[in-house]
Each structure stands twice: as C-alpha cells, then as structure tokens.
Write a structure and sequence with these properties.
With 851 residues, the chain is α+β, with helices and mostly antiparallel strands. It is 21% helix and 32% strand. The protein folds into 5 domains: 258 residues, no CATH class; 112 residues, no CATH class; 108 residues, no CATH class; 151 residues, Immunoglobulin-like (Sandwich); 83 residues, Immunoglobulin-like (Sandwich). The two termini are 58 Å apart.
C-alpha cells in the first residue's frame, strides 16, 4: 500500500510494464532541477477565497475558485548544483539492470509542508525510496510540447525525441508511464475526483544519456553559494551550467494513474468530500502590490482620465491585493471593456477629449482643459500655441499614442482651426465661444484625436502616408480596441506599480463592481450593495450610500476598507512538471565519499519514506551482509559504501561493531584488550570488557572441522581450501569455537565501536591461568585455567596476611579449558591472592574486592 501525505508536494511517476533492457543502470547524483507545481481546485462546487475588515467584521470574496481552475503555481528552480547544495537538496540514485533502484539515505528533496493549520510552505525533507522502473534510451518518443494542463513545456527537448522511462513502484514518488497517456472524463481519474477533467497534455516520462542541451543557469561561476549570498541577493547568473550525464523529464497529476494525492490512507476519505483524493492546499497569504511614489513618498498615479484607480490619497505603505501581473491584466481588461463599451477607440478618444474640456475639478466654472490653456497663456505663450499644448497633453494622457503622433495631431488641429475660424484661442478650444456655429463647436479640437485613433500608423507611430493606388492596412495600427487594451495595461503597470509581495493583514481591495467608488472596496459601496440586495431602490439606497467615499480610509462611518486575510484550506489536485539533470558516478565511487556509510547495507532505510534516523531501520540483516562481505561474498558497490563506516574502502569487523552499536544504542563496558587462548580443542577469550566482534583467519589440514558458538549475535565462517575465515559478532560466552584437527591462527582481529583493540594469542604450556575478570570486582570474578594434560589442580584464595580464606577447586581435572569463579559475597573489601597449584607449579593472581 502506498502512503501519501496530503500536504507533501512530491514529484510524480507511472507504471506500465514493457520488456525493455534497463539501459540506464548506474549510480547517479542530482546535478540540477526545474520543477513546476500547479494546484488545481478539486472541489465539485465553486468556492470563495474570503477577505475581511477586522474592525467591522465585514467579509467579502476576493477570488472564486471554480472546479478544475488553478489556485496556485510556483516553479521550484531552475537550480544548478551549487544552488541545490545551498538549499540542502541532494538525490543519490542507483538504477540496477533488473529494473529496480534505490534512492539512498542522505538524500533530501524539496517539497511542500503543512507548517501550521491551512499554511503550506516550501521545505526540504529526507527522501529515500525503493523503485521499480523500465527504460528504453532508443524509444525515439516525441516529447510533449505542453504540460498536462496545456502550458508550454519548460523542457529543453520539447518537440524533439527522447528515450522513454516509467516508474511503477515507489513510496514517495508518483508513478508515470513510458507511453504518453492522456486522461479524460472516461479515465480512471474521473471516478476519483468526482469532477472529471479532460487534460490537454499527457502524463509521460522521457530520458536521454545523450544530454547535450544546457537548460540550467550557472550561478556565481559555479562557486559555492552561502546562506548570506541567498539572503542578501548576492547570486548572479554567469551563463549556463554544462549538461550532466542523464536527463529525465516527467509529467504527472494526482489521481489513479500516478497513485498519488490520496492522503495517508487511500481507503479513507479524510477530507470527507466524497472522493479518495485528500491532498489539501493551505493558502497562508494573498499576493499584493505596492504603488509607485514620488520623491516625497506620495503616490504618483491617479486622477487622470484613463487611470482606473486613483492612488493619490492612498497610504503607500499599505499594498493592494493582487500581484503586479494580476493588476496589470485587470487594467488591460478594463481598457478593452472601456474601449468597446464606448463604441470603439475613435468614440473613446473623442469622449476623453470632451471629458478633458468639460470637467471642472476645482469648481471655478472653467473647464480643466481651458484652465490649462489659460495658464500657459498667462506665462506669455501665444494662445494658439497654449491651446495646441493642452491638446497634446490630452493626447498623451490616453497612453496609447506615441509622443510624436500626439505632437503631430496637436499641430494639425491648430492649423485646421486657424484655417477655419481665423482666430484660435483657449475659449474657442474649450467651446466657450464658437466663431462659426457650422463648425460644430468642439469638433476642431477633438476631431484630431478621433482621426488619430482610427489612423493607420507607421513604425514611429505617425499616420501612414499611402502611396498612390495603395491601400493602407490598419490592422497593425492603433485602430482596434485590443491593441488599446494591451498598450494601456502595460504602460500603466510600469508607471504605477512598484514591486510586489505577500500579506495577510492591512491591504486595500479593488473591485470593478465598486466603480462608483473609485473601484475601491469602501463602506458606502458595501452598504449600497447590501441595501440593493435587501430590495431597496437605486434612488433610496443612493441617497444613503451613493456618495463616493474612496478618497480616504474608513473613519468609523465610511471610507476605504483596509482588509485582512486568514489562512484557508482548499482541496487540490497537484500537477507536476519535472526536469532533472544527473551526473553519473565513476566506478568505485561512493555517493558521499569514503567513510560516509550508515551501516544500512541492505538499504532497508530506503524502503520506508523519509528514513532520517537510520537506527530505526538498521538490523541484524545488515550485520549478516557485512559478515558475508568479510567472508568473501561480493556486494553491490554502493552496498559496500554503505557498510564502510570507517572509510578504509572495505567492510571489516570495525564497521560491524559500529553498526551493532547503532542498533543497540551503544555497548556497555567495551573491551580495550583481549587474550585469545588457543588449545587443541578450540579457542576461548579473556577480555577486559565486551568485545564487539572477532575476525579469525585460520589455516588447517584437510581433516579440519569447526563448530562456532551459538551464543552470539552473528557467527559465520567460510572455508576455501585450507583457509577458514571466522566472524563472531557480540559473543556472549568465553568459548568462541571448538575444532577437530590440526590448525593455526594466522590472524585475529578484535574490535570495539572505536576501532581495532589489542589482541594477543596465548598457547598454553602445561597450564595457564588468565587474568581475573572483572578486577576490581564485586562480588564475583572469574579466570580461565588451561591444562595441557589431565592432572590434580588446587585453586585457593589467601588474604594479605597469607591466611587461607577460601578453596575454589581441589581435585583432578581433565585437559582443556576450565572456568574458575570466586563469589566473595561473604568477604570484606580488600586485596586477595588467588593461587593455582598444578603439581609443583604455582601461578598467583592479585585481585581487589570493592564493595
């Protein structure tokens, strides 16, 4: 059963079985990534993202998510190798020729984490996994040009051909198919989502080892990047990073095909939405934009005929909800609507001209355009030139014509008017006086703008002069509303917006439904809407709430509302588009260098997601594999790397003991030295603590046989011709093994968790008595007595005064090894002498009893 965490945005993969040669077998290290995550709304009914006014408790929708619509998107990358290192991302991957693979401990991958209720944030987590895959480098598969949701692909090989890859077994990665697979309302995903979606792009996997196209930036010439660089923006693009050895690309979306997005348990409907899918997106804040200001810190946009939002009275420290791109699109869309709504660009231009003439902002009885003209004339400018300048200013205010074309139309209007009326001045321009009623009053003024709006323009923005017999094509000029909208929106953004960010508190809200209130969400606008919804008439509601209160913040009665946002959760389908670059390790190259092993030889830590603490998954199976390696069994190279803890390039008893220590949480009273006592019957040891492991090399005759102790964590041996290698891990008794036949110990290694310890081989003469252990002791200590031949033995204990205080043994003993113990429970603390008498020989041991 695959387990999936509902807020973890991991990459995705698919399984279909094809009998291909698995031709990408090898060890790989991540060299760069570029991943695009898109969150689609998974609910069956539309849902609103709500904002609120903290003081009044007013709550309104800021955005509506419809089923299948995008809620959030971020591109994690493009990141070259030095950037991955800086943010703590790594991926160690082995692919085997049998179609299996592993992502090893020590790997970390970027993902999305639920860091608080309804707050999803980027993060990096341990990534270990067992994989089953197929690959075919020669598939010549056409590479899709769009993502699953139809966006242009970010891949460097889009539209070309590559090999194919699939994944049909993984825990943290999704599955993806080797053959591009489209998903639609009849597919398996339809029954899972409850809201069938026909995706324009397929799920698929692509691969190549003929990787020649760079697609990742090179930061800081490839030099290491520090956290300080990231924090202070000290990272620069210096070119492209050279391609690695292996390129992989895959496309996936939550559902039955990818087997992802099912929460912790596929059988449980955790979010109770009626579907098996349970992934949740927590949106912690909303995007906002800041308005541009002048040198005094005051907003510079607003109040013009073509400014949809008047920013002049805003607090510039308070942003507007919506990113720059969102607001730019809103303005552009507004321009197009305004254009068509007025009856076309020519009507719109004429209307603006009329508005500029008739508007009396300061209420002094003089139109703004006339006032501007009179102001210039008062400075000594001839009235005909002042009128021309006022017209040019109105033209430039439109934001859709070049300065050259506006200057041209101003001069042409002036010339035409002078020809027709003979006396062109500010009053004539403003319609205050009309020397010739037949001229239609304001027509000479605004006619030039109308002509310009419908003209065919050349590349410099001036009206085109068609040659004789030629018909000018206006399709590329400004004679259409779409071009007006594009030009208007982009120009407005450059002038009026100054950066963007995110916020959850204190921002202004813009809404075209509040056009009567400067397009801002205001108290009067809210109350007007409520009044109308309650059945009030426009006249009655207007008397109460019709005044435009968008010029100031809420004062307790009316004004602009400064809104806030609380994190919200939304059910999501996550779409992933992944592009990764790997470098291949050379022969005999460990992923993280010599001595980097964790002891997890069998890689069982990689078979459960996120195995950060290897002590939870190390076990005796790893010890057995390490012992078998010592005995001559060949392991996969990366298995040897994982077992080589001490970094000497091979697995030995030191690595075994250190792994045992990790499993047991540390050894108690570790030995620092050991005596290995060899007799004709076998081998025993006497040590000053617990020995982690012994490794023996024994030479012998053909009739040799051996039996190892059963009281050990692992005891194994291997015989090749006349040489036997023995490994005993964590022996629990003194006796290590017994033998039949002639033998010699060529080498003995004993180890604790810190490394090899001193070990000596003792071959008894007539008899030997080992050092007492423990010593000092309380209340019991033991010794090994070795007899070459059967004989009478007496072992006695004397105090410092030479008085006999205890007899440990007295009688006949067989040849061989014997354990002699003294229980001093009834004796006082102090020094004692233990003497062994065999025939005429005496061996004395001094022991210390400490209670």
């Amino acid at each position: 059963m695959k387990l999936f965490r509902k807020t973890v945005g991991v990459i995705a993969i698919v399984g279909m079985c094809f009998m291909y040669a698995q031709d990408i077998a090898g060890d790989y290290r991540l060299n760069g990534t570029n991943v695009r995550y898109t969150s689609l709304y998974r609910g069956a009914e539309p849902v609103d993202l709500m904002i609120y006014h903290a003081l009044t408790g007013i709550e309104i929708p800021a955005l509506t998510f419809n089923p299948g619509s995008p809620m959030n998107q971020f591109v994690n990358g493009p990141y070259p190798k030095n950037m991955l290192t800086a943010i703590g991302v790594n991926l160690n991957l082995s692919m085997y020729s049998d179609g299996t693979g592993h992502i090893y401990e020590g790997s970390f991958y970027p993902t999305a984490l639920e860091v608080a209720p309804c707050v999803t944030a980027p993060g990096v987590l341990p990534a270990t996994d067992y994989l089953e895959y197929t690959s075919n480098l020669d598939a010549e598969l056409p590479v899709q040009t769009v993502s699953i949701i139809g966006e242009p692909s970010m891949g460097p090989y889009a539209g070309g051909t590559l090999g194919s890859i699939s994944l049909n077994q993984a825990d943290i990665f999704d599955y993806f198919p080797a053959v591009p697979t489209y998903m639609d309302a009849t597919g398996s995903d339809a029954s899972l989502t409850g809201n069938p979606i026909a995706y324009p792009g397929p799920a698929a996997g692509y691969i190549t080892k003929n990787h020649t196209t760079p697609f990742l930036p090179e930061f800081n010439n490839g030099e290491p990047i520090t956290p300080v660089d990231l924090y202070y923006g000290g990272v620069s693009v210096t070119g492209y990073q050279a391609p690695g050895d292996l390129y992989m690309e895959w496309h996936a979306v939550d559902g039955g095909l990818s087997q992802s997005g099912f929460g912790d348990y596929m059988e449980v409907d955790e979010d109770e939405d009626g579907t098996a899918l349970d992934r949740i997106l927590g949106i912690p804040y909303v995007p906002v934009s800041y308005v541009s200001t002048d040198d005094n810190g005051d907003p510079i946009c607003g109040g013009g005929a073509f400014d949809p939002f008047d920013f002049t009275s805003l607090d510039p420290a308070i942003p507007l909800i919506g990113g720059n791109a969102t607001l730019t699109a809103t303005v552009a869309a507004g321009g197009v609507d305004l254009c068509y709504g007025s009856g076309g660009l020519d009507v719109l231009a004429g209307g603006v001209c009329m508005q500029a003439i008739l508007t009396d902002a300061d209420g002094n009885g003089m139109g703004d355009m006339n006032e501007a003209c009179m102001g210039l004339a008062a400075q000594g400018m001839p009235e005909n030139m002042a009128a021309s300048m006022a017209i040019e200013g109105t033209c430039n205010a439109l934001g859709i014509f070049t300065e050259e074309s506006c200057a041209t139309v101003a001069l042409s209007v002036e010339a035409d008017a002078m020809d027709q009326v003979g006396a062109w001045n500010c009053d004539v321009m403003a319609g205050v006086s009309t020397p010739d009623p037949n001229l239609g009053g304001l027509a000479p003024v605004c006619g030039g703008l109308i002509s310009l709006a419908t003209a065919c323009l050349d590349e410099s923005g001036l009206p085109m002069d068609c040659a004789d017999g030629e018909v000018c094509d206006c399709a590329t000029g400004f004679g259409n509303c779409e071009t007006f909208g594009d030009s208007y929106g982009s120009g407005w953004a450059a002038d009026c917006l100054d950066g963007e960010g995110t916020a959850a508190d204190a921002f202004y809200a813009l809404n075209s439904a509040f056009s009567a209130y400067g397009n801002f969400v205001t108290m009067n606008g809210i109350m007007m809407t409520g009044c109308l919804q309650q059945g009030g008439s426009m006249a009655d509601c207007g008397l109460l709430y019709g005044s435009d209160d968008s010029g100031y913040d809420f004062d307790g009665t009316n004004g602009r509302l400064v809104m806030s946002y609380s994190p919200q959760c939304f059910p999501e389908l996550q779409v992933r588009e992944v592009h990764v670059d790997f470098t291949e390790l050379g022969d005999n190259e460990c992923f993280d260098g010599p001595g980097s092993g964790s002891g997890d030889v069998d890689n069982s830590c990689a078979d459960s997601w996120g195995g950060a603490d290897v002590s939870n998954c190390l076990n005796v199976a790893d010890i057995v594999l390490m012992v078998q390696s010592i005995l001559g069994n060949v392991l996969e190279f990366q298995e040897t790397c994982r077992g080589d803890i001490d970094g000497n390039g091979l697995i030995n008893v030191v690595d075994v003991v250190q792994t045992v220590q990790l499993i047991l949480g540390g050894l108690v009273s570790e030995a620092t030295s050991s005596e290995v006592i060899k007799t004709v019957d076998g081998v025993q040891h006497v040590s000053d603590g617990n020995v982690g492991a012994f490794q023996f090399t024994i030479t012998h005759d053909e009739d040799f046989s051996i039996e190892l102790t059963k009281d050990a964590l692992v005891a194994e041996y291997s015989t090749i011709e006349n040489k036997t290698t023995v490994v005993i891990v964590m022996p629990e008794t003194d006796q290590l093994f017994t033998v039949n036949g002639q033998y010699e110990i060529s080498e003995v290694l004993a180890a604790n968790s810190h490394g090899l310890i001193e070990s000596t081989i003792v071959t008894p003469a007539d008899f030997t008595l080992s050092n007492a252990y423990p010593n000092p002791f309380n209340p019991t200590t033991s010794m090994l007595l070795s007899l070459e031949n059967e004989g009478t033995v007496s072992v006695k204990v004397f105090n410092l005064n030479g008085q006999l205080v205890d007899v440990l043994t007295d009688g006949t003993m067989d040849a061989g090894m014997h354990t002699i113990s003294w229980d001093a429970q009834e004796f006082a603390s102090g020094l004692y002498f233990i003497k062994a008498f065999v025939g005429s020989e005496v061996i004395t041991q001094k022991v210390s009893l400490m209670k």
